[in-house]
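Exercise 7.
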Amino acid sequence: MSTKQSTSRRKPAATEGILLRYRDADTPYGVTRKTASQLAKTLGLTETQVIHAALAHFARQNLPRYEADTGPLTAEQKEAIHELQPSGRMTVKESLF
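Solution. The predicted structure, written as tokens, is:
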């Protein structure tokens, strides 16, 4: 191991942060410090917790909660589904129309 150590160490991911600049006026995509403070006081949270809650809410609204569809079913997948169905109760349709 080298006796000379690097002076630039990377912070652990949990402590890395971003710079948040409050807006001069409330907009659809930003708020003033006053609004953030009012939210924090109303919710009984810190301003940091309010920001995290807002980001978590935005993520739930906008990010998919499931894997993307990979396309049509293969013949093997269709056969597996067909085998799982109780006999005589249902009919398999390839199309809804």
